[in-house]
Amino acid sequence: MAAKAAPEAPETTVDAFHRGRFFLVQPKGRGHRAGVDAMLLASLVPGDTTGKLADFGAGSGAAGMAVASRNDAMDVVLIERSPQMVQLARKSVLLPQNAGFAGRVTVLSADVTLTGRERLAAGLEDVSFDHVIMNPPFNDVNDRATPDALKAQAHAMTDQLFERWIRTASAVCRPSGQLSLIARPQSLLEILHACRNRFGGLQAIPVHPRPDEDAIRILLTGIKGSRARLTFRPPLFVHEAGKQAFSSKVDDLNNGRATISRNSNSLDRLRL
């Protein structure tokens, strides 16, 4: 039997993030390229967070490496199923510009939708992470299709996607560990259903392009085992009214100068 051919490596670029704090190897002209979504996701991990973090669907490693580059006491595992993106994530970690934190970042080739023994065999062990972040493919399959197969794999939502991803997040997360994700507002009900009896104390932040425009993203955090109620926090505006530049707050989040801490007014009570 002929050996299975290795996936074709895409043409790449090396791009700076957080004003040169870390760099990524990314596909050029096709595939998913990291941007504001990944940086907003990373901002949900406060700068004083410690422990071990899993980045589900990491791509070339943008969100996870953003956390590792500013959180000196965190170990980060970039988890990705696409062989091409796994290659790029490993190249990203090995860039000389990332040497200062590369020893705390590993890349795991695995499908986060696996269950039972298959999940364990893939390296996704039970209660092994303090924090799970995820930027799942959240475009509806009925949206305009792209001929770019690599991009389609990163963007197109599959049936029960959030149920499967959040189920695995709950399995690998330690008690009182935090889940953080970014998604479209249209997915909120599915996300809430998936978090039920897994993650509580949910805090949602709607993200609007401008103050007079509808939200296009939602940032959400939750605590494993919490019994606190859902909270909607003040909205985040990417741009100020009538302007193209980022708002000062989003610019700080996008460049790693600020993070979003959970509202301590909500009591994260654990199940007895």
Automatic annotation (TrEMBL):
GO terms for biological process: methylation. Coiled coil: none annotated. Keywords: Methyltransferase, S-adenosyl-L-methionine, Transferase. The keyword Repeat does not apply. One of its GO terms (molecular function) is methyltransferase activity. Residues 39-186 form the Methyltransferase small domain. InterPro entries: DNA_methylase_N6_adenine_CS, SAM-dependent_MTases_sf, Small_mtfrase_dom, tRNA_Adenine-N(6)_MTase. The keyword Hydrolase does not apply. This is Methyltransferase. It comes from Hoeflea poritis.
